[in-house]
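INTERNAL AUDIT FORM
Audit reference: QA-55
Scope: verify that the stored structure record matches its stored sequence.
Auditor: D.O.
Record contents follow.
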Amino acid sequence: MERLKDKIAIITGSAQGMGESHARTFIKEGAKVVMTDINEERGQEIASELGENVLFIKHDVTKPEEWENVVKRGEDKFGPINVLVNNAGILGPIAHTKDLSLEDYKRVCDINQYSVFYGMKFTLPSMLKAGIGSIVNISSIAGIVAIYGYPSLAYMASKFAIRGMTKATAVEYGPKNIRVNSVHPGFIKTPMMSEATNEEGGDATAMIPLGRLAETEEVSNLVLFLASDESSYMTGTEQIIDAGMSIQ
């Protein structure tokens, strides 16, 4: 299967969880992948397993100069980038607004929101050279609705912001054959989700009409579709994959 044949993708936060699943799916479907993460040991391990069509780069997504390095090294190895998956993110503290520190608010937005801006800013010139591009920004169901029982202003603010950034960039770059869509997962079986399902978080499945958390591969299948030419008439959309949480 080669649904991503001739695609050269950058996937951030790809040393675990959804990002790792996206990278594995993309390689299986014929893409060349630049994996990035701050976890160098695990990232290199996965890259070695996946073979010659993967380049792993240690990468702090909050640093613009490191984004420039990622794009340059990806181009040098594989050619112009034509897919970007802005996947890296953190949950941040579960805290009521009055108790949320300024430092925690800024940190969450730096990682979840500003990194998406940096990713698009520094990858778009490469896509313009390629003459085609698909950007997939991973937001959250918390970028669609507020989740009762999970107070986290910083997380929700950052994930709502991604919706607007996605739409603004889609309008701007549609005439250049570059598509931009956002993905809004509900509760997924990932290490980050484990942080949320502690005593403060409560029982996550009680909120889900389908009664279960998603496997990472279920989200990867959607990201694959948006990265591929199968979604060639889709841009500026918000794709909700939440087992019905947001319809309640």
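Auditor finding: record pair retrieved intact. The chain has one domain: 8-247.
Action required: none
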